[in-house]
Design brief:
Elements lengths: L10 H10 L1 H11 L3 E4 L8 E4 L2 H8 L6 E2 L9 H4 L9 H15 L2 H18 L10 H17 L6 H14 L9 H4 L12 H25 L8 H7 L10 H32 L1 H12 L7 H5 L2 H13 L9 E3 L3 E3 L2 E3 L4 E4 L1 H5 L15 H4 L20 H8 L1
Parallel strand pairs: 2-7
Antiparallel strand pairs: 1-2, 3-4, 4-7, 5-6
Helix pairs in contact: 1-2, 6-7, 6-18, 7-12, 8-10, 10-12, 12-15, 12-18
Bound molecules: protoporphyrin IX containing FE.
Protoporphyrin IX containing FE binds next to α12 and α18.
């Protein structure tokens, strides 16, 4: 595999800085090598190439079934949570088939309905807040995004089952706040059950209970014929490929876990940042509220979704601190030239969303929060890519955007 544009920083320092301050790491690296650089960072066994240039990213993402292959095995760090049958672990034809089965649930007419449901959930959660009281934005936005997933994706309504599933999910996802609690994802030898107080022992007990509830829900739904149920799980249960094959219980369980994992915290963080930025710049908040105040009372989700300044504020939020700093990895399948560098078979590449979004030539004064830039200029999907691109482009983009807006 190729090592190009090595950093002057010693490897031990790279590994450490990536853990304690990944943003500082990427900013330091891009100063040395603006287009692409070889990174040696914790969490990946081999060296990786981070690509910060839109042309390079375009080349990767438009060839990502052939030369730049999104091999599922490169994502295996998350298999203890999402299993081996989710989109994340699949590649090639299997990945294509599964995406085809899932895609209709996330697009088209459905989104209109889901948009209105999201609108109602946000209103319901904010109406519990007392006016003029202080609140922690991230707690509220986590509450919103988890409720959206449980109601829109699982089709659950508030009640005992809803509360228990929400509690178990939170206790799995909260451990991501402390890297030590998820060290077993990085190091397989730590996956030892030393009782319910040990990190792995505790994790597998929670995961087991959650799995039982999810499998029970899938089984119950298979036996019910309720045409009124239009949540994503119902759609997924009826989805069939060209051979008339549907998804197995295991596939459904793994995809639901992936949606929970990929869709909950990401969207909550994006919403919390947007609240932060508009309060940090009151003039932006006033302009935004001005746009929303001009809408007729009780406007539906789609009308709100299409407002230009609101769109610009959400885009700028996802540009300045993209929640996903990198795309999933792609592996080179045959020798190829990328941005003037020869890459050999087996080289692993990541599109560096953060560095691309901070490019001075695309985004003058990149550290400033300026939604207007999105009204003044159109960006290509390789210049602005908070949801990645190509065959692994985020499936939840429309849902996340609805929530933010
Ligand atoms: C602001 C919120 C979100 C951001 C910034 C985000 C970002 C991303 C990115 C960068 C990727 C990788 C794309 C690539 O490698 O090219 C991805 C993949 C994915 N996202 Fe999201 N995401 C968000 C919300 C969601 C939501 C709400 C869901 C589901 C409800 C979701 C489901 C997925 C799935 C299933 C994949 C894997 C697709 C595949 O492997 O084919 N995401 N997301």
């Amino acid at each position: 595999m190729s090592i190009v544009n090595q950093l002057s920083m010693p490897v031990w320092q790279q590994r450490l800085l990536w853990i304690v301050n990944p943003v500082a790491y990427m900013e330091q690296a891009v100063k040395e090598h603006p287009d692409l650089f070889t990174a040696t960072v914790s969490g990946f066994s081999d060296s990786l190439i981070f690509v910060n240039d839109p042309q390079g990213i375009q080349q990767i993402l438009t060839n990502d079934r052939q030369i730049f292959f999104p091999a599922g095995e490169l994502n295996n760090i998350l298999t203890p949570i999402v299993g081996y049958s989710s989109l994340l672990s699949l590649d090639g034809q299997k990945h294509k088939r599964e995406r085809k089965l899932m895609m209709p649930s996330f697009h088209g007419e459905r989104m209109h309905y889901y948009g209105n449901l999201v609108h109602e959930i946000v209103d319901r959660i904010f109406s519990k807040q007392r006016v003029n009281s202080v609140f922690i934005a991230r707690e509220i936005t986590q509450d919103i995004s988890l409720t959206v997933i449980l109601e829109v994706v699982f089709g659950l309504t508030e009640g005992e089952k809803f509360d228990r599933i929400a509690q178990l999910i939170k206790s799995i996802l909260n451990r991501f706040n402390q890297p030590i609690n998820i060290s077993f994802l990085f190091y397989e030898f730590l996956r030892k059950d030393w009782g319910k107080w040990s990190p792995w022992g505790n994790f597998i007990r929670i995961q087991k209970e959650l799995d039982e509830l999810i499998y029970h829900e899938i089984e119950t739904r298979r036996t019910e014929t309720n045409d009124q149920q239009i949540d994503m799980l119902s759609l997924l249960l009826s989805a069939q490929d060209e051979n008339g094959q549907g998804m197995t219980n295991q596939e459904l369980r793994d995809e639901l876990m992936l949606i929970l994992f990929a869709g909950h915290e990401t969207t909550a963080i994006a919403m919390a940042w947007s609240l932060y930025w508009i309060h940090y710049h009151p003039e932006i908040k006033d302009k935004l509220l001005g746009e929303l105040d001009n809408l007729p009372a009780n406007s539906d989700g789609m009308t709100i979704y299409q407002q230009p300044y609101l769109t610009a504020v959400c885009n700028e939020t996802l540009r300045i601190y993209p929640v996903a700093m990198l795309t999933f990895p792609r592996i080179v399948t045959e020798p190829v030239e990328l941005l003037g560098h020869q890459l050999s078979k087996g080289t692993v590449l990541l599109g560096c969303i953060y560095n691309t979004h901070q490019r001075q030539d695309l985004y003058p004064s990149p550290y400033q929060f300026k939604p207007e830039r999105f009204l003044e200029r159109q960006y290509s999907p390789y210049e602005f890519l908070p949801f990645g691109g190509g065959v692994r482009r985020c499936l939840g983009e429309a849902l996340a955007s609805y929530e933010m807006k």
